[in-house]
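Exercise 3.2. Students should predict the tertiary structure of the chain below and write it as structure tokens, then compare their answer with the key that follows.

Predict this chain's 3D structure.
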Amino acid sequence: MTTRAIINPAMMAWARKYAGFTNGYEEQLPNEIKEKYESWENGDTYPTWNQLRKVSKKYHVPTAFFFMDCTPNFNNLPDIINYRKLDVDSIYEINSPNLINNIRKSENRRNIYLELAHDLKEEVIRFEVPNLEMDKKIFADYIREVLDIPISTQKSWYKESKHYNFLNKWKEVLNEKLGILIFETEGVLLEEMRALCIFHEEIPIILLNGKDSVNGRIFSLFHELTHLLLGESAICGDDDNIKEEIFCNAVAGEFLVPEEDLLSNINPNIELLSNASLRNLYNLYGVSEHVILRRLLDTHKISNNDYSLHISNFNEPVLDSSSSSGNYLNNMIKYNSRAYYSLILDAYDLGIINSIEFSKFTNLGKNQIPKLQEAFYGGE
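Answer key:
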């Protein structure tokens, strides 16, 4: 006789909604769950213990939750606003279970980071929202000042054409100077979300889409930073027609490719729109060809027709080839950030957390600890 788990049906319904399997996303459930969840939620039948464990894993809640008398009070996501002016309820209606899970994972990692930072007596930077005029250059100059990275330093970061060094350097600087934790998504379609930010006065979050190109992620960092400097959270896709999105794009462009410096680096002896000229400029600043073309248009160095013609032929790779393959440890560092893993490693080395907690916080086995230490400190 098969043993059934006598659960609270209301908790089964709560867990499915918590995981984001609503409004048609139920079709993404495994068949064994999809065929049974309604009867479990209605109390008509009960799952086997094996089925309950599978549901627990899919809904990202412990099995014990299904036996609670009352549904928990933490079912809401962070109050993400903007981009269609989303409210909390509409997040469930619009976004996929993968994105909802990635948002929750980001918040959970931030909470772990904040708690361990206090245990380690690390300084936690308070994120300041400046009172600035809504002008792209004023915002860009402010970012340049608070990050304390001269344009000459930025331009010295060029190492290879894919611009990984630029991305890694910017992530490091944003964490060190502003306390921002930068994570990357796993399994979220680029069509759904390019990036998002979650505002906190201590340790705000920027979540980049791990499937985006390196240059796309670099640009998104400063688009999302602008949202944070406005004191708001946001989910951002490809909608460039919202006034605030246009402003955030303009600030990111002006910061990464300052007008005055761009004009001083245009070689009058080379055709401006030649491959060599464009390649020199986008490698100089660590941005995409698309960003350079837009900045040339904004500074009136090319016409709308020239811009449209070149953009129509622009084929920068959308998906990053490292987003779903390669070394597991490197991918985990990419998703969870060097800043987060470095703090976890410090806490482990000082005995604040044990190996079980290390694995829980990092999704890495104990055997990965020496490899992580080598990755972070091996060159010192």
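Discussion points: Residues 77-92 have pLDDT under 50 and may be disordered. The chain is about 50% helix and 5% strand.
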